Amino acid sequence: MPIELTKVAYVTSATAKGGRAGHVTSADGLIDVDLAQPGTTPEPAVNPETLFASGYAACFQGALANRAKTQGIDTSDSTVTANVSFGPSDDGGFGLAVELEVNIPNVDAAKAQELVELAHGFCPYSKATRGNIAVTLTIV
User: Is there a single domain that holds both residue 94 and residue 33?
Assistant: First the structure.
């Protein structure tokens, strides 16, 4: 059963043309980039997986800060790296997998693990991916 919003707090949109080798623009104009499939251009290029990794990492770090704050823990020096993998899936199509690498300086391993699990339960990206793709949580 999907999670229903009780109130809309924010709405945004982006428009893509040309698919994975096209162009994407956000409604506010802050994102306005050409896309390219990985390995198809001599220079690194933005692709949907890069955009997804950026959003997931930022959202998860915010969720981590939120959950830590409820326990009086400062995670302002923490970092979250979202490693997004793309490839063929067993259903004949393609899929994603994510590894979230979380570094929380000055927090012991057990507390870091607890905070990461709490953030994973709270983060909207984690909620959206739960049961759909493999997400691995790694404390670094």
Answer: no
